[in-house]
Design a protein that fits this description.
single chain; 418 residues; alpha/beta; Aspartate Aminotransferase, domain 1; Aspartate Aminotransferase, domain 2; 2 domains; 7-stranded mixed β-sheet; disordered N terminus
Length: 418
């Protein structure tokens, strides 16, 4: 049976290795605890029942969060919504794109990104991604020339593509750029916050992101008409837009001219998120230090390669991605198992059945291109959670498990070949 047939049949390859390992694996799924400062506000909201953002005449927790987030990112305006996916949807709708507009997105992203494009009545156009997890700029330029109405750059897992080249190409063609910065809160490009480079930036507060709200999203922009349209469409019905202390001169223009999609954030979410904003800088610092420590250790192995950041990029990682070097399909599956029994879960994007990050599983798209470069990358690209709260000992445990698993699989494979 071929390795591909084995994978599809669910049978594991017979490449077992000695996996005894002392010590306890860190729980990388556990989120950081909610700050104590949130608890009093949560108790107040639960006692009052004041959960709807528009109940108060002004200064609801959601409204305060929007002002604080805009200040943190250096943006003029911010809108809190129920998810980053909904922020992306509203951003696309606010651009007033034609029906079936062609929206370029990287082929390495989460299924929610092309889903938001489809939800907005647009057509996702997938762009090749290289072994460094970033957009293939030659393919991007070629697809721009084939026609595009908008570009949605997904900084997948916090890896920033060449934003200088992307913005120059799009500016020359008057094509608007939306940034999906779900994984990039705190990342900078030439010292400027990711999410502020395009027309609109969208962020996530889902539990595995840098700021944990369980769910929730944020859209930021400097454009008064875009923020006015997104506020109304998010669910500011009748005159509730008056409770947004921004662009009051634009709301009346858009009143009753836009549909309401009811994608609001509620006050409980904002109460959980707000006390975490002062923690962003520390989490970015600790997350980058931990990531770079583990990356250096993995890069010492001949079997793994962690791509470096681009020169203008200051990353804010809470996970680590690396490529397996000179592994075939059978060895890759054996590596995932060898790491698992050592206490570390490794996701190989292209090897996990129905993985929502493998573009060939997005069968809701009318036409899925071949994209051989992205496919090959996804078949060897590994993903491991690496939250900022981990200690150095826990980081070393993960690094040692990953390196040991690769060595064991390759040693076993070598013995089979003699």
């Amino acid at each position: 049976m071929s390795s591909t047939a084995q994978r599809l049949s669910g049978k594991k390859p017979d490449m077992s290795v000695n996996t005894e390992r002392p010590g306890k694996a860190p729980d990388v799924r556990q989120a950081e605890p909610i700050p104590k400062a949130a608890r009093a506000e949560i108790r107040h909201l639960l006692q009052s029942g004041d959960l709807f953002r528009y109940t108060a005449p002004a200064n609801s927790p959601v409204s305060l969060l929007e002002a604080e987030f805009a200040e943190l990112l250096g943006a003029r305006f911010a809108l809190a919504v129920s998810s980053c996916s909904n922020a992306l949807f509203l951003a696309l709708k606010a651009l007033d794109l034609p029906h079936s507009a062609r929206v370029l997105i990287p082929a390495f992203t989460f299924a929610a990104v092309p889903s938001a494009v489809v939800h907005a009545g647009c057509q996702p156009v997938l762009v090749e991604v290289g072994d460094d997890f970033r957009i293939n700029m030659a393919d991007f330029a070629a697809r721009l020339d084939q026609g595009a109405d908008a570009v949605l750059i997904s900084h997948m897992r916090g890896h920033t593509s060449d934003m200088d080249a992307i913005m120059n190409l799009c500016s020359a063609r008057s094509i608007p750029v939306i940034e999906d910065a779900a994984h990039s809160l705190g990342t900078k490009w030439h010292g400027q916050n990711i999410g502020t480079l395009g027309k609109i930036g969208c962020f996530s507060f889902q539990s595995y992101k840098l700021v944990n709200g369980g769910e929730g999203g944020m859209a930021i922009t400097d454009d008064p008409d875009l923020i006015a349209k997104m506020i109304i469409m998010s669910g500011a019905y009748e005159h509730n837009w008056k409770k947004h202390p921004v662009v009051q001169d634009r709301f009346a223009h858009w009143q009753n001219r836009l549909p309401l999609y009811n994608m609001r954030m509620h006050n409980l979410s904002a109460a959980v998120i707000r006390p975490q904003l002062p923690e962003v800088a520390r989490r970015v610092r600790d997350g980058r230090a931990g990531h770079d420590h583990v990356a250096a250790r993995l890069n010492s192995s001949p079997w793994m390669a962690v791509p470096p950041p681009l020169p203008p990029e200051e990353r804010a990682p809470d996970s680590i991605q690396f490529n397996l070097v000179n592994f075939d399909d059978e060895e890759t599956l054996a590596y995932m198992e060898a790491a698992r029994v050592r206490g570390v879960e490794v996701q190989v994007f292209g090897m996990s059945q129905d993985n929502a990050r493998a573009f060939w599983n997005w069968q809701f798209i009318d036409e899925i291109p071949e994209l051989p470069g992205t496919r090959a990358m996804l078949m060897r690209a590994c993903d491991v959670r690496l939250p900022a709260r981990l200690t150095r000992a826990e980081q070393d445990f993960i690094a040692e498990a990953l390196i040991s698993a690769a060595d064991a699989v390759k040693s076993r494979a070598a013995s089979y070949g003699t």
